[in-house]
Amino acid sequence: MNSFLRAALFFALFVVLGLTFGFLTFKILSFSRTVEVPPITNMTVIEADKVLGKAGLDLKIEGEDFDSMVPSGKIVRQDVPPGKTVKEKRAIRVVISKGPKVLSIPLLVNETLQNAEAILLQKGLRIGKVITVRSDAVQKGIIVAQRPEPDDKLTDVITVLVSAGPHDQAFYCPDFQGKQVEDVREVAQKMGLEIEIQGTGSIVTIQRPKPGTVIKSGEKLYLEIKEVTTP
Questions:
Q1: Which long-range contacts (CB under 8 A, 24 or more apart) does 138-144 make?
Q2: Which single residue of 21, 34, 85, 133 has CA 20 to 30 Å from 213?
Q3: First CA to last CA across the chain, in angstroms?
Q4: Predicted local distance difference test score (pLDDT) of residue 32
Q5: Coil, strand or helix: which one is 6?
Q6: What is the pLDDT of residue 56?
Q7: In terms of Cα–Cα distance, which of 137, 129, 54 is closest to 92?
Q8: What pLDDT score was predicted for residue 207?
Q9: Burial class, 230, CB count within 10 angstroms (exposed 0-12 / middle 13-18 / buried 19+)
Q10: How far apart are alpha carbons 128 and 166 in whole angstroms?
Q11: For residue 13, what pLDDT is reported?
Q12: Which residues make Cβ contacts (< 8 Å) with residue 112, sequence separation at least 6?
């Protein structure tokens, strides 16, 4: 066998071995196990590391951030949502809470819910719970009370009570038929009724609900009107 043929055989053998190792490496990587990512928010780093270790995953701390809901030192968010499957040995990146940016909250009473959320957002805070309550004194959508109180130490979830408007009042529907529509409109406004009018003119000829029917404030009163000429 001459030297040229021997070199060619060695080269061919080298290529075959290289392809074989490459194929085996690819197959090994392709068949690596997938695992489900567990929930680790609100855990300490030590707790999360144990949970991820049991699932065959690693933990990587990506940074810190303020959060009014998650206590300082605990994980506030993770880059892969719980329940999603990933390759085994993958690192799950997390952000650690630095706690709230401020230790007391501003006055939120008499603000709308939208304004209150904007005020708190500037301080790195957020509303944790909203409770609606009936109020005859406070307009619908306005915050009636808050907890913690202004300047109290922030140790709990921020809860606000938002007015849902006055309590419903029930009436016996008056007889509006034959009345001037402007007079009816004034009475209905005092009763808290909405009005829907059909027709043209100034005199109510038909109404729904009928006179004597129990009707609550906030409900709609349908009126048909026309111009009535006196003989």
A1: 138/163, 139/163, 139/165, 140/164, 140/165, 141/112, 141/113, 142/110, 142/111, 142/112, 143/108, 143/109, 143/110, 143/111, 143/112, 143/113, 143/116, 144/109
A2: 133
A3: 133
A4: 63
A5: helix
A6: 92
A7: 54
A8: 94
A9: exposed
A10: 25
A11: 79
A12: 141, 142, 143
Residue type, 116: A
Q: How far apart are CA 30 and CA 32, in angstroms?
A: 6
Q: Which residue has the tokens 């071995």?
A: 17
Q: What is the model's pLDDT at position 103?
A: 65
Helix (H) or strand (E) holding 118: helix 113-122
Report the 10 Å Cβ neighbour count for 108.
Answer: 22
Separation of alpha carbons 94 and 45, rounded Å? 9
Low-confidence ranges of the chain (pLDDT < 70): 1-2, 25-32, 102-103, 154-156, 229-231
CA–CA gap between residue 174 and residue 40 (Å, rounded): 62
pLDDT (0 to 100) of residue 156: 64
* Predicted pLDDT at 225: 93
Q: Collapse the DSSP code of 91 into the 3-class scheme (helix H, G, I; strand E, B; otherwise coil) and give the result.
A: strand
Instruction: Please give the Cα distance from 101 to 106 (Å, whole number).
Output: 13
What are the DSSP E strand ranges found in 98-219? 129-133, 143-147, 159-163, 170-172, 194-200, 203-208, 214-216
72 and 128 Cβ atoms separated by less than 8 Å:
no
pLDDT at 135 (0 to 100): 83
Q: Which long-range contacts (CB under 8 A, 24 or more apart) does 205-210 make?
A: 205/177, 205/178, 206/177, 207/173, 207/175, 207/176, 207/177, 209/173, 210/173
pLDDT tens digit string along 148-161?
888 777 666 789 99
- pLDDT tens for each residue of 50-75: 999 999 999 999 998 888 778 888 99
